[in-house]
Design a protein that fits this description.
By secondary structure, the chain is α+β, with helices and mostly antiparallel strands. The chain folds into two domains: about 80 residues, Alpha-Beta Plaits, CATH 3.30.70; about 110 residues, Alpha-Beta Plaits (2-Layer Sandwich). The protein has eight helices and eight strands. A two-stranded antiparallel ribbon has the order 1-4. β6 and β7 form a beta hairpin. The protein binds iron/sulfur cluster (SF4) (2 copies). One iron/sulfur cluster binds next to α5.
Length: about 200
């Protein structure tokens, strides 16, 4: 059987407020489309033209392109109603060794595809990682000009059950940052993000 990454995302639209598009705005990959529907399922074009009584009857539909989603959880954290739940595909650890960062270097922040997974602190102007949103793609490690200034470790993949030994080996490789880093480095730092995106299956072919 072919192992598939599990993209465990649920949306309880009964909690959504009509007019809210916070998740749509939060998604760094533009994968969410929120629409408001009439009781008979027709999309509402001009919400502002409706009165409060009419608005109460409307429903919200949240469409997510799940097959491209790296499960960063930004939408879950930005939703003010607690309507979205996302389980990460990869579990892992990321560390920034700030002592090693060259003054003013932002290469990792620039390459990171997930808004806020890496950020520059207003307090000390240094780079920090926010584990809540990191998808452990490794692009930052490849872009970083200093050996070991960033470490990215993947410890578990959320995938469908497989019994084949060959597939389990392949999955082990996918979880191993050492192997992935080697592979990405071989492709050149400039291509690091593209390679990471492809590997994580969130870029359209
Ligand atoms: S988990 Fe991240 S990438 Fe996926 S839909 Fe939510 S915000 Fe977008
Ligand atoms: S591993 Fe990927 S998602 Fe996480 S901080 Fe680095 S570039 Fe961003």
């Amino acid at each position: 059987s072919f192992p598939l990454l599990i993209r465990d995302i649920t949306v309880d639209t009964s909690k959504c407020k009509v007019g809210c598009i916070d998740c749509e705005e939060a998604c760094p990959l533009d994968l969410i489309k929120v629409t408001v529907l009439t009781p008979d399922g027709k999309p509402v074009e001009n919400l502002e033209a409706l009165g409060e009584a009419e608005k109460k009857k409307l429903k919200v539909n949240v469409e997510i392109e799940k097959d491209r989603c790296p499960c960063c959880r930004l939408c879950e954290f930005k939703c003010p109603e607690g309507a979205i739940s996302v389980r990460k595909i990869f579990t892992g650890k990321i560390r920034v060794n700030r002592e090693k960062c060259p003054e003013g270097c932002r290469d990792c922040v620039d390459v990171c595809p997930i808004t806020g997974a890496l950020y520059v602190s207003e307090k000390d102007g240094k780079v920090y990682a926010d584990e809540r949103f990191c998808v452990y793609c490794g692009a930052c490690k490849i872009a970083c000009p200093v050996e070991d200034a960033i470490t990215v470790e993947r410890t578990r993949i959320n995938h469908t059950v497989v019994r084949s030994g060959a597939w389990n080996k392949a999955l082990e490789k996918l979880a191993s940052p050492l192997v992935v880093t080697k592979e990405l480095k071989a492709r050149g730092a400039v291509k690091a993000l593209e390679a990471a995106e492809k590997r994580m299956q969130w870029r359209k072919p």
